[in-house]
Design goal:
The complex is a heterodimer of chains A (96) and B (468). Chain A is an all-alpha fold. Chain A has helices at residues 2-23, 30-41, 45-54, 58-88. The longest helix of chain A is centred in the C-terminal third of the chain and has 31 residues, at 58-88. The chains are: A mainly alpha (96), B alpha/beta (468).
């Protein structure tokens, strides 16, 4: 029961931190924001890696393998594309 | 208690790397606040993710690595080309596709854990864990198929108009109700494994049915909602695996999606329920075409160039049509020409312009237009009465004055860009077809409005040629 409660505290606090931090993101950057949070939520790779590494059953290895692949696609393309987008945002003033 | 921790505490390195990763993820989003620090945010996120993966690979329960190496290689080999080769106009599709991959990963891990525990460690399937696991699988799988549908619509593999049938909402809600009943049943009796495949199937089907009635203009809200679901699903996985890093990262993603959905709904003056169950654009679209012929003033590129040249302030209003016509680079040339002549040019960005939050900003930034020229709706609206020319490129409903005045209009109450207050209004449009909401735009029939008929890219190109 303790660990459930601990986890709930963590969830509630992290949600508040998230709401406060993200409220401040300029609408200018809403697309990069979505692709960055998408890359971050591919943290589910952690659970998938354990499935694939501990090899407890063929089913969990198979599903884990697909899950790791899907999550890694999101991690790699998510971070790269966010950076590619952000590189394009430049300030005005004298040009080049 | 009921997680990995019950077996053996994770090694110190893993615990520390997870903690640092959680901090880095929060910093990543904090640094994304402003364009100056945003790229540092991406770096923080990348380091956090690498740490989390390293911490996981050093866990003692890891027996074999060859499948892991293979899966990571395949994922990287697919991910890099997607990121580097994809045109910026395809960002909404890519985002939908990645939400779908995220949902799939979460749903599959949940499924695998259920069967693994059922067979090997039934004592781990407590009521609480099974309940959260069911929630994780439901959200994961519905995000998977729902986002795939969104991808299909954005890529125009599927029809972009809402697909509706009689009793649709009743079918959707009963399906969801059955899925919830099964989830509760599994929570009460976790060993009822026969229910699990049915439950997973219902979750997958619900995702498809949920997105069927959603049309293109509602995509910004729906993508944000799916973003939120993907985050919540990852958080639920954290509860199942007793992993705080997952809970934190999922909560961050969930709250981000939630904030964006709220902003999008407000920008359309609609509620979540209305977006999800309203099938916007369908009923009105049927009535379109019955409108009587009315006259509009139209102009050729030469005339448009002349008017722009003599203006001292111009506000350009881009919409999805600009993205479709890939006109952003021609628009930049126009911006250059006008700026060179001392005309003050700004861009008015409506929150729901395009197919995802911030879509227009990314396209214009790609075309090398400085971001301080991109102005949000609330800031630009008071400026329109002082604007010589409002040039609308591929936007329709977000400029329709009916939203302010016509109580019977389906878009009544939606905040719009007050382009009708500018001295001259020019609208680049292919023809007189109605916008997404399927209604006439009074703006086009005003005396000060000039319709510039043609493809956005070609027309802007000719205007630029006239000016050069």
């Amino acid at each position: 029961m303790d660990s459930i409660l601990n986890n709930l505290y963590v969830f509630v606090l992290a949600t508040f931190v998230g709401l406060e931090v993200i409220r401040r993101v300029s609408p200018l950057l809403h697309t990069p924001l979505m692709s960055l949070t998408n890359a971050i939520s591919a943290i589910s790779v952690v659970g998938a890696l354990v499935l694939l590494g501990e090899q407890k059953s063929p089913l969990s290895t198979l599903l884990g393998g697909i899950a790791v692949t899907a999550a890694v696609i999101n991690i790699v393309s998510g971070f790269l594309i966010t950076d590619r987008m952000l590189k394009m945002f430049r300030r005005g003033g004298p040009r080049r | 208690m009921n997680g990995e921790a019950a077996h053996a505490a994770a090694p110190l390195f893993t615990q520390v790397s997870y903690l640092v990763a959680a901090v880095l993820f929060i910093l990543a989003l904090k640094w994304l606040n402003a364009p100056d620090t945003a790229r540092r945010g991406v770096l923080a996120g990348e380091v956090g993710m690498l740490l989390a993966i390293a911490g996981t690979l050093t866990l003692p329960e890891m027996k074999s690595f060859h499948w892991i190496v293979l899966a990571i290689l395949v994922g990287t080999a697919i991910g890099i080309p997607i990121a580097l080769l994809m045109p910026m106009t395809a960002v909404p599709q890519r985002t939908a596709l990645s939400h779908s991959f995220g949902g799939l990963a979460v749903g599959l891990v949940g499924t695998a854990k259920y069967y693994q525990w059922l067979v090997q460690e039934p004592e781990r399937l407590t009521h609480f864990t099974t309940g959260v696991l069911a929630f994780e699988v439901l959200l994961g799988f519905l995000t998977f198929t729902g986002s795939l549908m969104a991808f299909g619509k954005l890529q125009e593999i599927l029809p972009t108009r809402p697909i509706t049938y009689r009793g649709q909402n009743i079918v959707n809600l009963s399906l969801l109700a059955v899925a919830v009943v099964l989830a509760v049943w599994l929570t009460v009796d976790p060993r009822q494994s026969a229910l699990f495949p049915v439950f997973a199937f219902l979750a997958l089907t619900f995702g498809v049915l949920l997105i069927l009635p959603i049309g293109g203009a509602d995509m910004p809200t729906v993508i944000s909602l799916l973003n939120s679901y993907a985050g919540l699903a990852a958080s639920a996985m954290g509860f199942v695996l007793d992993n705080k890093l997952l809970i934190i990262a999922g909560a961050l993603d969930g709250s981000s999606g939630l904030i964006l959905s709220i902003i999008m709904c407000r920008a359309m003056n609609r509620s979540f329920t209305n977006v999800l169950f309203g099938a916007f654009g369908q009923a009105a679209a049927k009535g379109a075409g019955t409108a009587e012929e009315r006259t509009v003033r139209s102009a050729q590129p030469e005339e448009a160039a002349e008017i722009l040249r003599s203006a001292s302030s111009v506000v350009i209003v881009p919409g999805y049509g600009m993205a479709v016509a890939q006109a952003q680079h021609k628009v930049r040339e126009l911006y250059d020409q006008l700026t060179k002549r001392g005309v003050d040019v700004r861009f008015a960005i409506h929150p729901v312009a395009g197919r995802m939050p911030g879509h227009m900003n990314v396209l214009l930034a790609e075309a090398d237009i400085p971001y301080d020229r991109l102005v949000e709706m609330d800031e630009i609206n008071p400026e329109f009465p002082r604007t010589d020319v409002a040039l609308i490129i591929g936007a329709n409903d977000v400029t329709n004055p009916a939203a302010r005045t016509d109580k019977s209009s389906p878009i009544f109450g939606m905040p719009i860009l007050d382009v009708d207050k500018a001295r001259t209004v020019m609208v680049i449009k292919r023809g007189m077809s109605s916008g997404f909401a399927g209604i006439d735009n009074e703006l086009y029939f005003m005396d000060k409005t000039l319709m510039l008929f043609g493809d956005a890219k070609a027309f802007v190109g000719e205007v630029v040629k006239e000016m050069g």
